[in-house]
Amino acid sequence: MKTLLKSIVSAAVVAAAFGAQAADFPAKDKVITIIVPFAAGGPTDRVARDLAEAMRKPLGGVSVVVDNAAGAGGSIGANKVAKANADGYTLLVHHIGMGTMPTLVRNIPFKVESDFEYLGMINDVPMTLIGRPTLPANNFKELQGWIAQNKGKINLGNAGVGSASHLCGLLFQNAVKTDMTPVPYKGTGPAMTDLIGGQIDIMCDQTTNTTSQIEAKKVKAYAVTTPKRLTTPALKDLPTLQESGLKGFEVTIWHGLYAPKGTPADVQKKLNDALKAALKDPDFIKKQEGLGAVVVADKRSDPAEHKKFVAAEIAKWSPIIKAAGVYAD
């Protein structure tokens, strides 16, 4: 009887502690850290930093900072969040990698579908097919001809195994039925630097990283990966890969917000409310649109729909990755 009573009292104390924690969240003297599992300066980093700024006000002005923990296809940073205290002060911004890591990363130390609390989707980011500025092809038709004439000599850059640019590159090679030499980098920044410098030939990357380079004419732009053309001024004249002849080619990178499993429901609700407020923030929307990204304005901003969407992405990408035989160790 005493043991039972002690257990009941202990449970009540724990419940009261969690309740108080949720009621006080976020504490003014604490910092919310958003972990980005990729290098600083890349597209996911830019999204996270814009989001951190937009979430500060709806969270009562508390400090929201970004910390980069890159490596292993995005799994190192994700694992850091999965193992963090479930108190709402350590969050994760990840992209399509949440849908590819279960297949792509060997011996992944966590379960994507059960070791996180899904807080909501952030945006959809189209991809652009771009080339070095000295590439002789000036449009996609000419690029196809150049690819046909240079089989076995083409260097296809990406931001590392498992990155958005890597996944898009895999699909592009399959679509044009041409093997290219993959050149992986430790992040989008160095990959873009070498593309501009002519060390690699082509790359498929997110508009959040390519738009400014296309505007400055530092790279050649050939097409977008969405079903319809984009309205962003710098990209509005680019054809889609589908209309250019690659039927069914569609890649859109998305970003979502996550917390460690076990984060109190009230804390999750406050974080989701802050996320939704950020998604309606005119400054955040303007920044994302300027990068070619589309802020989520549908039910995927709800946790349950976010989780359902990621499950569908896992099912979509698993056979593609297995067929390519690529893994991030």
Automatic annotation (TrEMBL):
Supply the Pfam families for this chain. Answer: TctC
Q: Does the keyword ATP-binding apply?
A: no
Q: Which domain of life does this protein belong to? A: Bacteria
What the entry lists under InterPro entries is as follows:
BUG (IPR005064), Bug_dom1 (IPR042100)
Would you indicate the residue range of the signal peptide?
Answer: 1-22
Keywords from the UniProt entry: Signal
Gene3D superfamilies in UniProt: Bordetella uptake gene, domain 1 (3.40.190.150), Periplasmic binding protein-like II (3.40.190.10)
Which family does this protein fall into? Belongs to the UPF0065 (bug) family.
What is the official name of this protein in its record? Tripartite tricarboxylate transporter substrate binding protein BugD
Tell me which species this is from: Ramlibacter albus
